[in-house]
Amino acid sequence: MPAPKDDPLIPLRHSTAHVMAQAVGELFPGTKFGIGPAIEDGFYYDFDLPRPLTPDDLEAIEARMREIIRGNYPFIRREISPEEGRRIFHDQPYKLELIEDLQAGRADEDGESISTGPLTLTTYTHDTFTDLCRGPHVEHTGQIPADAFKLLRVAGAYWRGDERRPQLQRIYGTVWPARQELEAYLVRLEEIERRDHRRLGRELDLFSVDPNLGAGLVLWHPKGAMIRYLVEEFWRQEHLKWGYELVFSPHIGRSWLWEKSGHLQFYRENMYAPLEIDEQEFYLKPMNCPFHISIYRSRVRSYRELPLRWAELGTVYRYERGGVLHGLLRVRGFTQDDAHIFCRPDQIEEEVLRCLDFCLHLWRAFGFHEYEIDLSVRDPAHPEKYAGGDEAWQQAEQALSRALEARHLPYRRAEGEAVFYGPKIDWKIRDALGRTWQCTTIQFDFNLPERFDISYIGEDGREHRPYMVHRALLGSMERFLGLLIEHYAGAFPVWLCPVQVALIPITDAQVPYARQIEEAVRAAGLRVVLDDSNRRMQAKIREHQLQKVPYMLVLGAREEATGQVAVRLRTGEDLGDMPLSRFLEMAREAVEKKV
RNA sequence: GCCGACGUAGCUCAAUGGUAGAGCAGCGGUCUUGUAAACCGCCGGCUAAGGGUUCAAAUCCCUUCGUCGGCUCCA
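YS: structure for the whole thing
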């Protein structure tokens, strides 16, 4: 992701990118240079090279970079005309394209669009390397600490982010003011890897994805299924409290439905091939909306019954391109926490606000407090590209922005990013690796009500078209659970733990006592396991600690004699002996408070 | 889908083109222990699948599937 605009390390990182570019250019004659910005925690540079890079190449590039750094070459800024730029970069097609676009006011040096085109370009030169660049840079290459940078990996990246254009080789690197900071960063990367949901999913026996049954298809093991069950139960209860009704719909539907909805026309490449039976074609559903609309259409609707809020944990299947699958975060079969709201125009404002409040309530309940929100609206220059009337769009966009503002939620207004059928709020959560994943989406739809010709009878006795809002708050169970695992690094709050209490008898002699305790703990409504394995107490503690069980009750001769339990928390804290009743009170309180 | 790397036991990893191995996990025993790993033994593999090259392939080549890192796209 891009570096924050005010990051003081940008000059250092951008300068290191230039040094890397020089090194690559020297080691690979004929290199064509793309762009190379500073990003969060580092930098990259894109190259068109005669052959693929290997890890050995990265070492050679790093070695040459250290030499350039030792040269203490100053970074020299120059202002040049576009003509001069074309001369300097006459053998650099990508740079020439950038100059063209800069002149036309289409892009800046980082390939991002800007509104006005500068007539003066700037270049920065150090040693033998000159790049088209806005700066700023450090004063000279010697200011780059030679022991605090590292080239991390090479990856493919399309020129200008366009998959129809050539694919370049991108080298990612990181650089810090001092060696200790680089080391701290590398340690951070390792910690992040340890909380990767794919690793924790295996270690905690929560889920698996078995290529033998298909990529992107998730198997929920008992412990993962327990967490999912708890999330879903909570979700259902809260929806009922917040004025939703629950519905269910099938996994397949006749081609009629998908033709009517337009999915076969616009979404076919993401749909699984049809199943044929009785000379009819059925498709696995990639979305739930056509079914909910069909429920709406099942009889005449009155203005009196609106708004209708119908929610379903609807499992959908989408054929996602192979390269994008990622653990639980990007899969081919997933269960959306979907709902559709049908309402009158005069209800829209309140419905959007309700939706937002409910959304905040849910995320907070699961311990998430930081979001990135986009409000995607029309491209004002091309109102003709969109379904639905001008007035409806304005009303919908206003309802969305007012709701965000009423709740003081910072958001980015993304003009032109709305889909053709309506404006939307996209709400993203960051994973442990800093990647953001869209979970919540609140979307207006002016298209489907039209296509299915749904209506309600108004006060005036005439037919009116209802507004329709799609919303998924957690997004999907798969993605949400993936993020939940990383958010808590597998140490879930007690109410979500598949195993809340582990009983650890010190010797076999305490097993009968442990069984009594087990029964009492289970009767208190807690999920408990008794470890009567043939191992030492220390090994059992280690095992359940690694399984992130919040409470371990150690049961030895002393506890049995006094009828107590020795309580140890997964933090390692030893609370000592206490009566079982006191422990149960403590655990139940934690469950209630959802901590 | 694209670029690159990779695919050996449940997991983490070994093995010059020449007999596939270790630790952990699992199983069986012994031990009966006071807050993060007792000891001994056993089991475990068509080296992802298919095709080639070779006297000989985990190793070299091709295809498919999958995984990882990105890009593009998305809940």
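YS: worth flagging: Residues 109-115 of chain A have pLDDT under 50 and may be disordered.
IM: good catch. Also The radius of gyration of chain A is 29 Å.
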